[in-house]
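User: Some background: our group keeps a shared notebook of sequences we're curious about, and every so often someone picks one and asks for a predicted structure to add to the entry. Today it's my turn. The entry only has the sequence so far, pasted here. Could you supply the structure so I can complete it?
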Amino acid sequence: MRGTNSGKIQKKLPIINKKIQYPRKTLNLKVDEKYIFLETRKEISEGKSWLWIRNQAPCSKCADQWLCPSPSDYEISHWQTKSLQSNTAVNVKKENSIMKNQIKTLAIILFLAAGFVGCKQSDTNNLITVDVTKSYLEKELILQDFMDVEYIPLETNNEFVTQGVVMAIGNKFILAKNSANDGDIFVFDRETGKGLRKINRKGKGPEEYSHLTDIVLDEENHELFINCFTTKKIMVYDLFGNFKRSFKHTEDARYSHVYNYDNNNLICYNGLVCYKDGEKRGNEPYHMIISKQDGSITRNVSIPFDVIKTPYVKDGDRTVTAAVSPIIPYQNTWLLVETSSDTVYNYIPKENKLIPFLVKKPTVDPEVFLTMGTLTDRYYFFITMKKEFDFTKGRGFPLTGLMYDKQENAVFEPSVINSDFLKRKTVGMISHPLNNEFAAFQNLEAYQLVEAYKKGELKGKLNEIASKLTENDNPVLLIMKYKD
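Assistant: Of course. Here's the predicted structure to add to the notebook entry:
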């Protein structure tokens, strides 16, 4: 199993080499860890290491020897027992000096040991390293064991017939579009799936969009942000489709993967980077936080790298590129992916800080990219993509789903099973949450559910929903939520 050692236990304990800097001089210590445990054992069994009790002179000659508490440093240093001779006090001071030296030595030993262990844990516990060229064992999970599941049937009527490409999920609304670029935005009730209204502002006018690249739902400000990749503009409407304002993408950038960052800002990525494969890094922005009011850059979030690497393949005049999700909302933080870097970073907004989250071992010929999928407290799902494309077949960029199990400290190829299907049914864990309130979502096609219902292959709430569906109905939305 990955992450375990099968070798024999080492008999020799490691030696800690530490250098402690004091104000006026340097003390070099070479401490055997075994000494710590021997000294502790010696004290517990014999009481002759550092603990001072009243079983030695002068207290051993006193009638009230065991009525007094353990002597303090001050008392030991200033013994004034009238019944003892002065030379006894001198001996006590000498013993006290030895005892204090022992205490100091032990304190240094414990300090070094604690520091050594602490540093080792902080370096290894948080950062995950993955070799994406390896093959991993399969691990089967039951979805309901680590997720709370909710099913929402999207209402179907004459006005609401959609392919159900979900673009946003909020507390009150669900927004969906069709795969075809017809400009329709379907607004559904978040709780019931009831169709509320349909918005379409597609056109060539100044208040219209030509393509629905991204749709961002801002329920607090009652606004929709429509990102149009082709025209390099973001159009802003109210929740009924009334135009409010628009702003252009910043120079040298074309926004993709736009998300709701906070009340005043969006977070997005510069999609033009994918066409600059092999070039040196320039000054243009990559991950950006931009104003919702005018599109100005509030902050650039810079991931370090030197040469641009993207899933872009060229064969003569033919070119093809694939999408790798560069931004993944994860509860109150953001995971940022840059295909030019082997490290996935966790961005902490409050601190404006990038923390390495996962490291991919470098790959070449072919290059293998990595992006994150669904994340929970225990499981991190992610996807690898090979930079390969067969132009004769029109197919390429093969994907492999992987999962890191924090509890087992190992990587697996996951197979996640939805237990509401009596016949084995897997769940894709590569969909990304559209906000920070739930883990993932997936569409369940109506015709597949109707077929499974007729065969008696469903149970529970899903079986009840499927009993009311027809094959031509809109999809049922499966929402996976973090367990409380």
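Suggested note for the entry: The chain has a mean pLDDT of 81. The radius of gyration is 33 Å.
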